[in-house]
Specification:
eight-stranded mixed sheet; binds zinc ion; 8 strands; alpha/beta; Rossmann fold; 38% helix
Length: 245
């Protein structure tokens, strides 16, 4: 019998067991813009059982070139992204549980927003809350997938406390970024590609396919195209103040 998940259950190492595992999983998606909306959509379609959708912003017309989950009525109503995302995702997969949280992720509410999570997707658009998330994930032993996009490029990184370096290990001196969306914009396909790569790593983590995970930071440039995986090197640095690696 063909079910809605048959075509993915046929993938090697997936099967009904993997599908049942996804159905029992909770993923927190922080940020519901070009990355988070598309990544959440892929996880909803794949049948991840519970998605907690976190974003304090409202949909605006200038979002629509890259934020695949929203439409013109959302923009004209300035709909809260968390609620609009939950509504659209419920139309895509009504079998899963969707929690809309129109809140900004920060130190004060972070623990509550991460409660019960198996995995977190970092689809945030600023560095500061990412480092807050990093500290929570190290403390809670919670795996997460970081993604970022600006202009025609982006990066994806899998972070597993105790098994990989943390975000602070990678970015010990987060200075001013070379590119900013305010100045350099964001290419729609770049956001969708990075979201797909992020959802791909998330599915591997949820299915226990550790053998297939990214091991370094994948840096993708699209104009002109290149995919490069950077290996972590501690060099002569002091041990990390957050994770001790
Ligand atoms: Zn670290």
């Amino acid at each position: 019998m063909i079910s809605r998940y048959t075509m993915q259950e046929r993938l090697a190492g997936w099967g009904p067991e993997g599908q049942a595992h996804l159905a029992g999983s909770t993923v927190v998606v922080l940020g519901l813009g070009g990355l988070g909306g598309a990544a959440a959509m892929l996880l909803a379609r794949a049948g991840v059982g519970r998605l907690r959708l976190v974003d304090p912003d409202r949909v605006a017309l200038e979002n629509l070139h890259r934020q695949l989950l929203y439409d013109e009525p959302d923009a004209s109503q300035a709909a809260p992204k968390a609620q609009a995302a939950a509504r659209h995702l419920d139309g895509i997969n009504s079998e899963i549980t969707l929690e809309a949280m129109a809140e900004e992720f920060q130190a004060g509410n972070g623990r509550e927003l991460l409660q019960g999570a198996d995995l977190v997707l970092d689809c945030l658009d600023r560095p500061q809350p990412r480092f807050v998330l990093n500290e929570f994930c190290v403390e809670l032993g919670l795996p997460w997938v970081h993604a970022g996009v600006v202009a025609a490029q982006g990066q994806v990184l899998v972070l597993r406390p105790g098994l990989t370096p943390c975000l602070r290990c990678w970015f010990s001196n987060p200075g001013e970024p070379a590119l900013t969306s305010e100045r350099d914009g964001i290419l729609g396909p770049a956001a969708a590609i990075m979201a797909s790569l992020q959802a791909n790593e998330a599915l591997k983590l949820l299915l226990g396919r550790d053998d297939a995970l990214l091991t370094g930071m994948l840096v993708v440039r699209l104009w002109p195209p290149s995919f490069r995986e950077i290996r972590f090197s501690r060099g002569g640095q002091e041990p990390c103040p957050v994770c001790g690696y």
